[in-house]
Structures are given as structure tokens and as C-alpha cells.
Design a protein that fits this description.
By secondary structure, this protein is α+β, with helices and mostly antiparallel strands. It has one domain. 54% of the residues lie in helices and 15% in strands. The chain contains six helices and four strands, in the order ααααβββαβα. Strands 3-2-1-4 form a four-stranded antiparallel β-sheet, covered by helices on one side. β1 and β2 (116-125) form a beta hairpin. The longest helix has 34 residues, at 4-37. It is globular, with a radius of gyration of 17 Å. This is Transglutaminase superfamily protein.
């Protein structure tokens, strides 16, 4: 038997999750558009406008926030019509985490697979992978930070 206050709390939590999913997807779409028409550097400048100065959460809150956002972006990746590029999703996740006071590093790696050039983007915090699996990034050569400051346009 469920009590009314339990159902109300559950309903609020589900609506909050839906709002987070919607915001994350809209931000990803805006970033994809910006990357299409500008550079990575310009897109990061635009995203810096959304940044807030907040103190970092304690370790327990940080784990909960990271888990919540990782789940949201995992949901986006599992819906074929909502899949976004790894770069736009990593930038969106980094922006959302910054707004919660959590810093992360954008990593971009390159690889050559069967003669084809491939690139991939992900986030790390203190050397720990946030939004990808180690087996996915294992074969990528990580570009140095200085190379990321060059103009990078997405076609």
C-alpha cells in the first residue's frame, strides 16, 4: 500500500528527472548547432556565459550528482533518435557539472581504424572517466590540451 505523500514524492522526482533530461538534450542540440557553425573555442566561450560560481559539493553529493547526470546522458545515448555527438554531449555534461561546482577535463582522442580517421570526446575528473567506458577510449591517442585550442569545426 502506498501513501499519498510517497506517491507525491515519487511524482516530483520523476518530473525533476524529466526536466533534467529535457535540459540536457536541449543544451546538447544548442552545442551541436554552435559547433556546426563556429569552432570549439567559440562554443566554449558561449558556454562560459552559463557558468555559475558555486563551491564544490561534498564528496557524497558529488557522487550523487555525477551518477544522476551519467544516467541522463546514458538515456540520451540509448534512444536512437536522440543520439548526439560525443563532443556535444561531453561539452553539455561539463557545462551542467560546472553549474553544480564540479570541474572536469574535456579529452579528445584520435584513432585510425581500418584506414579511416576517427575521433572521440569524453570527460575525466581527476583522471577518472565520467561519461564513457574505459574499453571505448582505450585505443584513442589523447590530443594535448594545446591542440584543442586550435580551431576545430564540425562538418
Amino acid at each position: 500500500m502506498y501513501y499519498d505523500h510517497d506517491l507525491i514524492s515519487l511524482n516530483r522526482a520523476l518530473r525533476a528527472n524529466d526536466r533534467m533530461f529535457f535540459r540536457a538534450r536541449m543544451l546538447t542540440i544548442l552545442i551541436e548547432t554552435s559547433l556546426r557553425f563556429t569552432s570549439l573555442k567559440t562554443t566554449e566561450k558561449i558556454l562560459s556565459i552559463l557558468a555559475k560560481k558555486v563551491s564544490p559539493p561534498n564528496e557524497k553529493e558529488m557522487v550523487a550528482i555525477l551518477d544522476k547526470y551519467a544516467t541522463i546522458f546514458n538515456q540520451i545515448n540509448h534512444q536512437p533518435d536522440l543520439k548526439g555527438r560525443c563532443l556535444s554531449q561531453s561539452l553539455a555534461l561539463r557545462c551542467l557539472l560546472q553549474r553544480k561546482g564540479i570541474t572536469s577535463a574535456l579529452k579528445i582522442g584520435v584513432n585510425q581504424i581500418r584506414g579511416n580517421f576517427d575521433a572521440h570526446a569524453w570527460l575525466e575528473r581527476d583522471g577518472i572517466l565520467i561519461n564513457d567506458h574505459p574499453s571505448v577510449i582505450a585505443n584513442y591517442f589523447v590530443l594535448p590540451e594545446s591542440k584543442l585550442n586550435m580551431t576545430l569545426k564540425i562538418k
